[in-house]
Amino acid sequence: MAVKKKTSSTTRRSSTKPTSSSKKNTTKPASSAKKRTTKSQAEQERILRQEHRKRQVWAIILFALGLLVAALIFVKGQNLWRGIHNVLFGIFGTGVFALPVLMIYIAVRATLDERMGKIRHKLWQSLVLLALLCALLQILVVGKYSGDSFTEVVKTLYLAGSLKISGGVLSIAVGMPLLLACGKVGATIIIILFSFAFILLITGATLLDVFHKVSEPVKKMEDHYIQRQEEREREREAKFDINVDLGPDALPQHPVSSSKAIFHTEPKPDITVQPELTDHFIDVVEQTDTSKAAIGKASKITADSIETRPKPKKEERVNEEKTTPEAPLDELVKKAVPTQEEAVSEPEKAEKPDAEIAKQLSQNSTAEQKVLYRYPPVSLLKAPVNRKNGDISVELRANAERLVDTLKSFGVQTRVIDISRGPTVTRYELQPSAGVKISKITGLADDIALNLAAAGVRIEAPIPNKAAVGIEVPNRQTDIVTIREVIDSVSFRDAKSKLSVALGRDISGKEVVFDIGKMPHMLIAGATGSGKSVCINTLIMSLMYKATPDEVRLLMIDPKVVELGIYNGIPHLLVPVVTDPRKAAGALGWAVTEMLNRYKLFADNQVRDLHGYNELAMTKEDLNPLPQIVIIIDELADLMMAAPNEVEDSICRLAQMARAAGMHLVIATQRPSVDVITGVIKANIPSRIAFAVSSQVDSRTILDSGGAEKLLGRGDMLFYPVGMPKPTRLQCCYVSDKEVEEVVQFVKGNLESEYDDQIMDEIEKQAVKEKPSKSSDGGGFDDTDELLDSAIECVIEASQASTSYLQRRLKVGYARAARLMDEMETKGIIGPFEGSKPRQVLMTRDQWLEMKMNQSGENES
């Protein structure tokens, strides 16, 4: 048994002790594992370095590409550079400006040791964000995808994108499905939300970060507001801290705590005590401001009232601060303040002298008379229609490039410096290169019209006050200028003159308002249907909206009978619309007589014009203010055919002298020929309006230059007022017959017309006087021979008179010379027959001139 135990123990010891061979076997795997670990770490470090280097290389490349794209966007360049520039804009549209920003941002993030997989994700997210931005721009700017097929849509998007007016081809991926499915508003909301989400994904920001960023300024504003409130509280408490001497007898039985005390032994008073405390507080404030004796009265205030003084004021201030944001109330207060300041107290009214009161009553009475005329409301006129011009920018850009290319093909180097789009035409302002003659550009008008496929092109070379040539191209979509949008404009409302007229819009779309008094006379000419009658209606309507009948009176002559007859009965008319050409000549004769009477009245009162006379009439009771008179002739050609001499003489005299007398002529004709618009009429009427005419000859008759033959009609006109170097192209206001009828009915319904019977009688007299002279065409002379003045001059110069002498000097026959002798004897210029002796001359030259002036004055009156 002992031997067995020993062997077992030795066996255990031998099993527990490792042999040398086993030790060697265990140390070898440990060293090899250690070597493998070091090798794998080195391999990982090498891979990380390679990845870092690769990431930095890609970051540098992406950053450089971002800068290159930015340069391609902002610099147009030439040749290949220009082609890439157009391709970028054609694909991305105006959203291409976000492309270099995103590329540079991802390049910066790549340098911050982020994984390549993360960078690739950000690249895809940036591309989606860019597509969303392009779609948003397309929907907001253009609002639609125009084209019959998908190919046409892509072409249109590419062209508009290259012109920088759309979202480019990329916008079709997101924008077109959303626009078809959700409409414009829904698509816009969805794209904005998704764009916000992708911006958060790209930047790595969270909603909490966004809320913190948004709440920081709000918190700062709140802190500032609280600090400001505390400062105001301290200021109010400082104002309420009044030192009052209460005296030893009036001291309170309990300790008084100030408004800043920490412990209060007494409870705060109830709200029921506030009226009494407020009264005490008002007494203190009033009495301390008046005199020192108020301190004695203030000593009766109790301690409770002193302690609770600031509270009512504080509540009042809080209420005031709460009511300040109410804007309508503030506006009513501001409107009410001037009326209170202008109000006069009863003692001041009693102190006014009787003369001032009488004067004020007279002014009030005149004001009441003027109030009788009610201006027609603007609502009677048709409101302008909202113009929908979606693809105007594409048209303008394409026309500008075609203009430059067309002129370049003829060897004329130019560049477009400005584009002005009006209601009817668009003016492209081109600046030619040095050495280019203007005549070379003006001679290419037909070639430009051919290349632009336009109806006609008018060239203004050069534009006044600009170093450029204006090429006016008709718009494919014309806009109607309504009279309401010009009359309701600031320019017309702020015009001080009572003769202001809403004419239309110029080539830049600006309202044009002119003063008839500054013209001072106007000639309107144009072919039938060009807008001449509409222009006259616009003029009359503007006067009815601007002036009362006491300020402006109208004398209308309408030989065509149907144009101005609708205005019969308005209070502005002096007489009914004159339609008879014979009476029209008499009406012009009355106007000449009225002009001379006004000048005599001005001379008697030592004033120079109507404005000075009306100012004098406001101070003198025996003088009555005179209205301005506008004489409107709708068709001059008929009058010139019926009574050419009388009409031309009256128009010339009025045009020469009537401005200072407050009388103005507006003459219209549809036949601008030299036998209608004579040289004498043109010389005395400086301001002209030309509508479309048939030939350049007619245009030169009206404007002394060509251009009216290139007009489009339907209100397209050239306005050439006095003092302007060149005519200005305008689109005249359109007023329909229904609008005219409604305004006329409103005016007639509120104030009846008062025609002047004296003027009507005078017109009848003038017409009757002229009638025999039109039909008389005797044997070369009548009761007043046309050679009578020459015969009188001859005999006064020779100091003797005989029939043979007149035959020799005037080269007439014996019968006519004898009749002239009899006529002079009747007028008392020569003596009776004395046989063979010459007759005596009984008048000197001065006496003859005086007699001649008196006769002309009698004829005019």
Summarize it.
Helices cover 57% and strands 9% of the residues. The chain has 861 residues and is an alpha/beta fold. The strands form three sheets. Strands 6-5-13-12-11-7-10-9-8 form a nine-stranded mixed β-sheet. It has a four-stranded antiparallel β-sheet with strand order 1-2-4-3. A two-stranded antiparallel sheet has the order 14-15.
CATH architecture level-2 label of the largest domain:
3-Layer(aba) Sandwich
Unreliable parts: 1-27, 240-371, 768-782
Q: CATH-wise, what's the superfamily of the largest domain? A: P-loop containing nucleotide triphosphate hydrolases
CATH class membership of the largest domain? Alpha Beta
Summarize the biggest pleated sheet.
9 strands, mixed
The percent range for strand residues is 5-15%
**Secondary structural class:** alpha/beta
Put simply, the count of helices is 33
CATH topology of the largest domain: Rossmann fold
Whole-number count of domains: 6
Average predicted local confidence, pLDDT: 76
Q: Estimate the helix proportion, in percent.
A: 55-70%
Pfam families: FtsK_alpha, FtsK_gamma, FtsK_SpoIIIE
Transmembrane segments: 57-75, 87-107, 127-145, 157-180, 187-208
Biased composition (Low complexity): 8-32
Biased composition (Basic and acidic residues): 306-324, 346-355
